[in-house]
Amino acid sequence: MQEMVSLDGLTKRFGPLVAVDRVSFTVGRGEVVGFLGPNGAGKTTTMRMLTGFVAPSAGSAKILGHDVVTRPVAAKRHLGYLPEGAPLYGDMAVRSFLNFIADMRGLAGDEKRRRIGEAVARTGLEQVLHQPIETLSKGYRRRVGLAQAILHDPPVLILDEPTDGLDPNQKFEVRKLIAEMAPDKAIIVSTHILEEVDAVCTRAIIIARGRVIADETPEALRRRSPWHNALRLSVDREGADGFEQLVAGLNRVREVRRTGEVDGVVEFLVAPANGTDIAPEVLALARERGLTIHGASIERGRLEEVFRQLTTVS
Fold first, then answer.
1. Are strands 203-208 and 32-36 parallel, antiparallel or unpaired?
2. Predicted local distance difference test score (pLDDT) of residue 314
3. Cβ distance 3 to 28 under 8 Å?
4. What is the pLDDT of residue 313?
5. Nearest 5°: CA angle at 42, between 176 and 166?
6. Cβ–Cβ under 8 Å, residues 107 and 183
7. Is residue 64 classed as helix, strand or coil in its secondary structure?
8. 133-163 pLDDT per residue, tens
């Protein structure tokens, strides 16, 4: 896998405050990396250093081998950046703004027209091309910001909260676009929305207090959840109490939680002691007790619980 982005010991200090502390990772072609962390963790500062908008106090960041500090023009030529808040020229019409961006990127003639047309189509801006940006909704402004980021078809994309302000349909379209672009690019999505990780990311990096505390696939992170491989089971109310006690006494069961009751059907959530598959054993016990099983499913694990667990450790 070709290495497209490289951070090595990247650090940023603001006086006595260490906002980013020796962050190191690489991103290869075809990867979509979710860069996660609570507010104040250092996500945006890291993105600003990576894109050359803030100088690091120590360490380095490279785009396709070009250092963003010592070779900023070469690095940014290969980079598309959607910053937090997507600052735009509000008094410009959308088409004028995209023409301006194309000029700044050195595009001209047929290539310029083609690239603008593709960016407009991909971000759904056809109906607002002649409107001043300041008159657009937050969602449309976000889409204009995304259009300028992909306009020159860069091999590296840095997207800071790309679906912020979008409605569910617009979020779906943006995530679909990211997935379509992913095979030929290295994409970093800085976000606090965990569903974004499930939707588009092949890998997740979690940062807290300025440091990387996890760098794994979403599935590997889910396996850290206390509810990974938990069994969600619905049975008849009659006999449920005795069944609950028996299940709680099984060696491989950590916890049994009664999560609801509707029309005489009780739902349990049964958590395994070490993430093992306990479903066959629990279901066999239910059948032995003569209980009618109305539903059974396996929990994959909950990213929000893992995120909370990792980022709130003192």
1. parallel
2. 46
3. yes
4. 62
5. 30
6. no
7. coil
8. 999 988 899 899 999 999 999 999 999 888 8
Listed residue (119, 103, 5) closest to 52, CA to CA? 5
Determine whether 213 is exposed, middle or buried from the number of CB atoms within 10 Å of its CB (0-12, 13-18, 19+).
Answer: middle
| Residue-by-residue DSSP string for 8-22 | EEEEEEETTEEEEEE
DSSP 8-state symbol, 135: G
Cα–Cα distance between 255 and 142 in angstroms, integer? 44
Q: pLDDT per residue over 265-299, tens digit each? A: 999 999 998 888 899 999 999 999 899 999 999 99
How far apart are the C-alpha atoms of 146 and 157, rounded to whole Å? Answer: 10
Burial class (CB in 10 A: 0-12, 13-18, 19+), 54: middle
Can you list the positions of beta strands (E) in the chain? 3-14, 17-28, 32-36, 58-63, 66-67, 79-82, 156-160, 186-191, 203-208, 211-216, 231-236, 253-262, 265-272, 293-298
One-letter amino acid at 297 equals S
Task: Report in angstroms the alpha-carbon separations of 115 from 76, 154, 174, 290.
Answer: 18, 11, 18, 66
Reading the block at residue 194, the tokens are 């965990």
Q: Which residues in the chain come in under a pLDDT of 70?
A: 86, 313-314
For 111, 121, 166, the CA distances from 172, given in Å and listed in that order, are 28, 15, 9
260: left (phi over 0), alpha (psi -120 to 50) or beta: left
Residue in the block written with tokens 């490279």: 62
Exposure string of 220-246, with b = 16+ CB inside 10 Å and e = fewer, is ebbebbbbbbbbbbbbbeeebeebbeb
Give which of 155, 174, 154, 156 is closest to 164, Cα–Cα: 174
